Amino acid sequence: MKIRNLLVSGFSLCVLGAIPQPAEAQFFKKISNMLETVDKALGGDASKSNTNTEKTANDAPQTGITVNGIHQATLYDGKTTMKCPVVTSNTKVISVDVSPSIYVNMASYSDGVAFVKVDKKCFFVDTLGNKVLDYNYGLPFMREYPRFYQGVCPAKKGMARNMSLIDKTGKVVMELPVYDCTNFVDGVAAGFISVQKGYSKVTKVVYFNTKGEPVYNNLIEEVKFGNLETPRPLCEGLAAHYSYSKQLYGFRDENGSLVIAPSYSKVQNFNDGLAAVQTASGKWGYIDKTGKMVIEAKFSSEPGPFSEGYAVVEKRDGSKCYIDKQGNIAFDGLRDASYFHNGKAFVRLNNSARYSLALIDKNFKVVSEFHTNLNSLPLEDAVSYSGDDILISNCFVTDMGDMILGAERLQSHFSDGLTYCVVWQEGGKSICGCTNRKGELVFIFKESEF
Predict the structure, then answer these.
(1) Which stretch is the leader sequence (predicted)?
(2) pTM of this prediction?
(3) How far apart are the C-alpha atoms of 259 and 280, rounded to whole Å?
């Protein structure tokens, strides 16, 4: 929109009733000529320049522009049209005998395939939507769905005593001596084994690689009680490790050597050189990679991870603030906040302004504001990152918060170039399937007609 169009529309509200009709026509003709000259002086299209108009609480949302130096993001607000994934002529259809939006559950891709559960039927599909393997094995209790890693996946057939490793054809590659085991993480899985001890049997935890070979023999220990925990990933060279005998967490390296002895009730992964840990007192603090407590355990609520020099912590009154690596408050008075990523962080400002959701930079200055506040969802749950992808609530956004692609339900970040989503249509109907980054549904699940 050119400057003359913007200003003439504004002038019309002020002078329409004050100028007689013939004079009004002459007046606007002069104004139009004057603003034509202004447009040319500014290079033609003034919409390419930052707008510096004042906004009020009653203004209609203006998106895709800059107001007073702050970007107005096009995050979905229930009124703005969301760019949703669409069916194309190349979309593959997978027929199912149930309502997909209710009964289809799908995990993220790993090793080129993803686990799908349709009511009581389970199978793996590739990135084209071709069924690779019917999964006729038991599902783990209270753990993530089975996942392939380097061509193998742990599985247990019916009433079989022990677990096996299967390949993508369903062939048993190797029998395992464990009666329960996790998925592989960084090439290592954990399992429970039953061994004879005197006149009775005890449970021990063991670790093995994708060839079924034992690893981390120094971490084998007797299990007092508790569920099997999936190994934590290596983060900055260390992985959180749970000791079943001590029922405490420590940290190990990639070889399984304990670098930080199990001493904490709960721990987060290392990030930005520090890890949040919960001590026996129930309070949280931060340790470095030597195990030294560098920020004292004084936080009653679990804090956020450090990222780009700052972490989000909660005060006793429920407000949030950013602290630096010395434990000093760097920015205070927030209703909610997310961790920094590529120099920016999503926050909810602690005021009654309409634009309560904003994006700030490392100087804690607002650089973008949003016409929605997602009040029902904490930012730690609403905002997540994966590489350069930013997912906020149900929508992928740019680094300034503008919508790229969204759906009523998004499964997760892209893996192998796809993510599962549910798109609602008019009349209460829905489309469920996997979309690529272009917003093209590669394949969908559709209830069979008969």
Answers:
(1) 1-25
(2) 0.82
(3) 20
